Structures are given as C-alpha cells and as structure tokens.
Amino acid sequence: DEGCPKFHLISLLVRLPDTTRFVVLGQAFIEGEDTHSVFSFLKAVSGRFTSGHPFVPDLVLIDDSRAEKRAIKLTWPTPLKIRIHTCVYHVVRTIRKRLDVTFENFKRANAFSDHPEKESWSTIVSSALECLYAPTETKFQELADNVSRQLDSLNFWWNPKTTKEDEKRWWLQYCKKSRYWAYYARAEDPAA
C-alpha cells in the first residue's frame, strides 16, 4: 500500500548450550534495515532477559547486511571478540543477484536465452558459488581468481547498469568478506 510504512521483522535467536536447539529471545517489527533500527532492537533485547548479567553472544549470524554488522559492533563493542558470520542463503542470493542473468527476472533471462556468452555467464555464477564451499584458503583463492579471469574473458556483460569491470571490482571486494561467510568460516573454524 502506498503511504504505509514498510516494516521488517527482526528476530534474535539463541542456541541453548545443553541441547544446541535455537529459541527465539526476541522479535520486533522495525521501520527499516538501517543501523539505528537494528541497534535499538539489539540493545532492548540484550538487556531485557539476562537478569542483570550482560548478554554477550560468541557468534552472530546475520543477513548480508552492513547495517546489521554495524549495529552488532555498536551493541557489543569490539574487545568482546564476537564472531560475525553471514548466512549462506544470503551470500548465495547476493552472488546470484549480481552475477546471474536468470536471477529473479524471467523476462531478462528469456531475452538472453540465445546469447553466445550465456554459457560463460552461467559458468561464472557456478564458479563464484563454488568459492563459498572452498575447504581451504588456497582453494578459495584459486576459485576466486578463476571468476576474475572468466569475467575478463567476456566480450559482453548482460547487465546494462554495470560493466564486466564493475562486476570484477565488486567480486574482488566481496571476496574480502569471505571470512564472514558462514560456511567458509566453518571450514576455517569448525567450532563456528
């Protein structure tokens, strides 16, 4: 509806140490996915159910959101060494949204269905997603470099709003966040 504010549901779940099951600690509708809204929620929930003892998580799993990461760092300052990981679903979604011609747009996918470089675009997406499951830093870097080389080899990029050079710059920047990707981080730190 036009004119109605758009609210987002945010949830804070905790994993019980004795059963390893997750329980909802708090939920709220917030006005936006901005740092202030997320911070306000975290601050309210983190102090509410802890009987005077500070609630400090060891690990936080987030969407692929800078606002959430900033809010966590504001709620629990850096010296606490909270591990922040990005949900695998959201990493896959971000990669596909940037690199996959078929992602959420059937009209666009049909428009490029016979394009000579369609197979190359598909290979780039597959290679990028494979990075997420790399068992070692060396394998990750090998796969990430392969995505960059594949982007370089293209003659045409499907997205009229960007160029293959833009996407390569984005990819190199996104790879720097790989230590936050939940699955990739788990390979480095099985306790995560």
Which helices and strands occur, and which strands form pairs?
Blueprint: E1 8-15, E2 22-30, H1 35-48, E3 59-62, H2 66-75, E4 83-86, H3 88-99, H4 106-111, H5 118-132, H6 137-153, H7 164-175, H8 182-188
Parallel strand pairs: 3-4
Antiparallel strand pairs: 1-2
Task: Explain what you see.
- Strand 3 (59-62), helix 2 (66-75) and strand 4 (83-86) form a beta-alpha-beta unit.
- This protein is α+β, with helices and mostly antiparallel strands and 192 residues long.
- The chain has helices at residues 35-48, 66-75, 88-99, 106-111, 118-132, 137-153, 164-175, 182-188, and strands at 8-15, 22-30, 59-62, 83-86.
- The chain contains 8 helices and 4 strands.
- The termini are far apart.
- It has a two-stranded antiparallel sheet with strand order 1-2. Strands 3-4 form a two-stranded parallel ribbon.
- Helix 3 packs antiparallel against helix 5 (118-132) and helix 6 packs antiparallel against helix 7 (164-175).
